[in-house]
Design brief:
The complex is a heterodimer of chains A (301) and B (455).
Chain A (H helix, E strand, L loop, with lengths): L1 H43 L9 H4 L7 H7 L2 H33 L4 H16 L2 H12 L4 H8 L6 H4 L1 H26 L3 H9 L4 H29 L3 H6 L11 H11 L3 H32 L1
Helix pairs in contact in A: 4-9, 4-11, 4-13, 5-9, 9-11, 11-14, 13-14
Chain B lengths: L32 E9 L4 H17 L3 E9 L3 H12 L8 E5 L3 H6 L7 H4 L10 H5 L11 E2 L5 E6 H6 L11 H14 L4 E4 L8 H12 L7 E2 L4 E3 L3 H16 L6 H4 L4 H9 L5 E7 L17 H4 E4 L1 E2 L8 E5 L2 E5 L6 H11 L2 H10 L7 H4 L2 H4 L3 H7 L5 E3 L6 H17 L4 H16 L4 E2 L4
Parallel strand pairs in B: 1-2, 1-3, 6-9, 8-15, 12-14
Antiparallel strand pairs in B: 3-13, 4-13, 5-9, 5-10, 7-8, 11-12
The chains are: A mainly alpha (301), B alpha/beta (455).
């Protein structure tokens, strides 16, 4: 009796402890190193915290003034447009489409062919971003590798200067396509073979197979992939910083670079933080759009 | 070479170390410990590193039980050094005891609570009397306290290649009277010598404070539209003079293509390329630059060039139309300062007294091509024997200007770097850049602290 009673009493406390006890070290670390900085940065965005000057010593609560200022800051708006261009160009269109196509073309090819091709594509992806940035810089700068090649046929280029957004978008497609390709390879290998065969038997050609069978079946992979690469690309700093440093002037100054400039070059930590919160909202907006897309498609299906 | 060094001594006081302590030492010295010295390392310029190391060895010898933790910040870009130092200064666990501090940041960093006033220590230091009154004031804050000991000052002017100018038909020695003379000479070089870059004027964010001071302000202070009106204690709006200065950037980079390639000019390594490559190689006609540049070509410098005076001449920068004193120069310089979060301020200061004593100042001023802050250094035979470069740049002192040493200056300076870059690439016209600066100015210092530009 006694034993049962204690056992019962214990039972009521066990469920919480059962997950809390083993999780607590991880939770503690998350709170300390993740939630802490996030909350701090939210707080800082509402002050006049700076790296030097009066705001460094006695940061004051300034309410929404950083955010109000944002609305009338043409450089911020400019940076946001460039960021959206960068995300759409390099991730949503570039990496996503190219990754899908490569995954599709690799289906049913010899193992040797696939392994060789993947080595190159994934090689670009596993390369540290700063190395990828320098590689592209060396390739594209005036008098660089590409220029030297072009000079043999009497041409020249200076895209880092004349078309900096194009240059960083191409570099980011080169660097990030592997990720989409891997996601789609996995997704394609999960497709039920009999469905594809049935479609073939019904006389569907390649294009309509792709449009009516493969893509609808892959929509969850597509949304997941889009969400992940969008968030990755939205915050991308290193590649652009190494290649153009946001320049010339502000011609490739995406929002992360603008945040860096405001916070660490103009010493306005609080303003930089406020911008980064807005960038967070942009990421959330993209995510909601993707979620809606998958929902709508599922309803249609 | 560029002057940038910071000594940041963040002294984490470690365990007390016993030792033979002379009776005369201050009480804090008795226990022993470590002081942290933070300074900048850039571009193969060894003078500051040598100075800091020599002083550290002498300090350890003089104060047994005490050691110096040398903590260099390696950064070719000046602004990166300021940022990293500011970040270090945020927390007492990382803040330096002794730091290498740019004079123009003094008031900003005092307002931020990073620097300790030195008056009580200076009054007991016999060496302080050897600093000229101007040098003593170099580290003076807005409240009148002294926040740093001057390591030397500098001036700015035009360094030109005599052969290149002669070939372009410009008589040497060259004495331009107006900005138009300077642009005319650059245009003549461009017309006659296709392989040569006619002129270098720093601009853009990559060159940091160098763009503002060696570049833009050397034009601006040759007009009557300065950044700050000391009579009314208000910031001046950008007006005709400001726009004229920006127009020179437009002429040189965006319109007539008289400068080094914009891609190079906007990078953070321009100064290194100009001083260590273009000038020695005879690829650059005129360089608007600072008095420390000849230090690059000393036997101990990053690019030894013993015969540079045969090739290069130095002349003063003219005012816009030759008005006023006729010439213009800007002066700055660096300090050694004590961090406010230092737990051993007396020992940090003692380190500075060793680093900037007569012997070490003399070494530094010669090897970093500084205009001496100490009168005993200025009178030393080896200092006087430096010859043409030092003598010419020192002669610019009578008409030199200092930057407005207020907390807002660093922000305005960065804004100036941004807009010069935009004008250089042609993204903005000078008029548009003026409008942008005025908007930023009002927003940064407040409308009540701004006055209209002089007509």
């Amino acid at each position: 009796m006694l034993i049962t009673a204690t056992g019962r009493r214990r039972k009521s406390t066990v469920p919480v402890m059962r997950w809390l006890a083993p999780l607590s070290p991880a939770l503690l670390i998350m709170l300390l190193f993740f939630a802490g900085p996030v909350l701090w940065s939210v707080y800082i965005a509402f002050t006049n915290k700076a790296l030097t000057g009066v705001g460094a010593q006695h940061a004051k609560w300034v309410g929404f003034s950083n955010f109000v200022h944002l609305l009338s800051d043409p450089l911020f708006v400019h940076s946001l447009l460039l960021t959206v261009l960068f995300v759409l160009g390099s991730a949503v269109v570039g990496q996503n489409t190219l990754g899908f196509l490569i995954a599709l073309l690799e289906r049913g090819k010899s193992r040797f062919f696939v392994a060789t091709l993947n080595t190159f594509i994934i090689g670009a992806w596993v390369m540290p971003e700063i190395v990828a940035g320098f590689t592209w810089y060396a390739y594209l700068y005036q008098g660089g590798v590409l220029d030297t090649w072009l000079s043999h046929i009497g041409l020249s280029q200076d895209w880092l200067y004349t078309a900096p957004m194009l240059a960083v978008i191409i570099a980011n497609i080169w660097r990030g396509t592997a990720f989409s390709m891997l996601v789609y390879s996995a997704g394609l290998s999960d497709l039920p073979g009999e469905l594809l065969e049935a479609a073939q038997v019904d006389g569907a050609n390649q294009l309509s197979m792709l449009r009516r069978v493969i893509i609808p079946l892959m929509r969850r992979s597509i949304v997941t992939n889009l969400m992940l690469i969008t968030l990755q690309t939205l915050g991308d700093f290193t590649l652009i910083f190494v290649m153009t440093a946001g320049g010339p002037g502000e011609a490739s100054q995406t929002t992360p670079l603008y945040i860096y400039q405001q916070a660490l070059q103009l010493y306005n930590i609080s303003y930089g933080t406020a911008i980064s919160l807005v960038l967070l909202l942009v990421g959330a907006a993209f995510s909601i759009v993707y979620m809606k897309m998958v929902k709508v498609q599922e309803e249609v299906a | 070479m560029r002057r940038r060094v910071r000594l940041s001594a963040v002294a984490a006081v470690t365990a007390a170390v016993g030792g033979v302590v002379p009776a005369a030492l201050p009480a804090s010295a008795a226990s022993g410990g470590t002081i942290k010295v933070v300074y900048q390392v850039q571009g193969g310029d060894p003078a500051l590193t040598n100075l800091v190391k020599t002083a550290a060895a002498e300090f350890a010898k003089q104060y047994p039980g005490w050691t110096v933790n040398l903590s260099p910040i390696t950064s070719p870009a000046e602004n990166d050094y300021y940022t990293k130092l500011d970040l270090m200064n945020q927390s007492s666990s990382t803040a330096p005891d002794v730091m290498y501090e740019d004079t123009f940041l003094v008031n900003s960093d005092v307002a931020a609570g990073y620097l300790a006033p030195l008056n009580q220590y200076l009054s007991k230091w016999s060496g302080w009397k050897s600093f000229s009154p101007a040098a003593q004031a170099a580290g003076k804050g807005a409240n009148g306290d002294i926040y740093g000991v001057s390591m030397g000052t500098d001036t700015r002017g035009l360094i030109y290649n005599k052969q290149i100018l002669a070939k372009a038909g410009i008589p040497v020695p060259w004495h331009p009277k107006t900005w138009a003379d300077v642009i005319k000479a650059a245009a003549a070089i461009k017309a006659k010598e296709p392989g040569v870059y006619p002129i270098n004027v720093y601009g853009g964010t990559g060159e940091g404070e160098g763009s503002t001071m060696q570049g833009f302000e050397m034009f601006l202070y040759g007009t009557n539209n300065w950044l700050f009106d000391s009579k009314t204690a208000k910031w001046e709006k950008a007006g005709a003079g400001f726009q004229a200065a920006l127009t020179q950037y437009q002429t040189i980079y965006a319109k007539q293509n008289l400068g080094v390639p914009v891609q190079t000019a906007l990078g953070s390594q321009t100064w290194q390329v100009v001083q260590q490559s273009y000038l020695p190689a005879g690829k650059l006609g005129i360089d608007l630059d600072g008095s420390w540049v000849p230090g690059t070509w000393l036997p101990t410098g990053p690019k030894p060039w013993p015969t540079w005076t045969k090739t290069l001449g130095i002349t003063a920068m003219p005012t816009q139309n030759g008005q006023g004193p006729g010439h213009v120069s800007m002066s700055g310089g660096w300090l050694m300062s004590v961090g406010s979060k230092s737990k051993n301020k007396q020992m940090a200061f003692n380190y500075i007294t060793i680093a900037l004593n007569m012997k070490n100042s003399l070494y530094y001023d010669i090897n970093a091509s500084q205009i001496a802050a100490r009168t005993d250094v200025a009178n030393a035979p080896s200092y006087k024997a430096q010859g043409y470069g030092a003598a010419t740049f020192s002669s610019f002192v009578p008409f030199t200007h200092f930057r407005p040493a207020f907390a807002a200056y660093p922000k305005l300076s960065t804004e100036i770097q941004l807009i010069t870059g935009q004008v250089m690439t042609g993204q903005k016209t000078p008029a548009q850049a003026v409008a942008e600066y005025n908007q930023y100015l009002v927003q940064t210092v407040g409308a009540k602290n701004v006055e209209n530009a002089p007509a």
